[in-house]
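Bench notes, afternoon.
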Amino acid sequence: MNSHVKTETVSASLPPIPFIDVASQRARLGSRIDEAVTRVLNHCRFVNGPEVTELETQLAAFAGAKHAISCSSGTDALAMILMAWGVKAGDAVFCPAFTFCATAEVVPWVGATPVFVDVLDDTFNMDPASLEAAIKVATDRGLNPRVVIPVDLFGQPADLDAIEVIAKAHDLKILCDTAQGFGATWNGKRTGSFGDASATSFFPAKPLGCFGDGGAVFTDDDDLVPVLKSVREHGQGVDKYENVRIGMTGRLDTIQAAILLEKLSIFEDEIAARQRVATRYNEALKDVCVVPAVDPRATSVWAQYTIRLPHGVRDGLAAALQKEGVPTAVYYRIPMHRQPAYAQYPAAGNGLPVCEKLCGEVISLPMHAYLDEASQERVIAAVRRALGA
């Protein structure tokens, strides 16, 4: 264990704190979830039932987008958009290297080439200057720049003002990956209302999650909607037995839609609760570690609460906290351009130093809307003890 981390244990006898607490949310909603699922069991429209249509209407209204198209996962949402745009071999798609693999994973699915971009040192989101450098790398390699995928990492939007300027200059489509940021704002507008299209995830651990896999696409492009719906349904034309394009099975099932409708009704309250937790963490920990920075133009939904420590300290902190029943997680230990499956793909020409550094320094603490003050104080005290504060 690193010498900077103290190992004394104070709260080992207390029950572990949930890292993400889906059970407390389930208890809050109580019979509403049971009744919503029962309605689906009774009408038996398990695929494309009325709850799916209602959810899409409510999601679009919440995000401030013209259209929401539900689907089977956040990954499939990204893939559906690339497929609908006809992204193909020879095209370059620009992705941050400090993200979950799904952002880049869908690019080779359509034959295109992911080109990795560095991130900013404060927000951990895509660095516009590195994006410019990555576009040059792609062009020099004979690739056709087509799409940029900014990620709303850990809950806050990327610098969409700067990215939109670059995208316009290079004729790039913007596909916003708001799997971690749905519900956040940029310049007062909700995520899901930016770019040419946005994709989100309803994986259970997300700020708005279902009880299985799920996702959605958002767009204001009327012409894109029928293509997305066709891709979602095996590329169908006038009916499921006419296939006019290559597609997938990408539907959101009706039970998950029914559950999400109930969760969406309390989502704004949960976002506010997450902000209260983050504010308390920030005030209590800012003198012992680097706490998260939120761009003044943005709000965050705090999908993760991620701090930074000097290189070599993180693992000792995690071990010390585990002894006190405080779980931690590391997002991400390996940047995408160093992952074995993606190492052959190009990156902006400077080696992506910020991504490399962050992967050795970041660690996430428990964060959810049901983290009560006593549990927060327990986390804070454990972190401060471990770091010798």
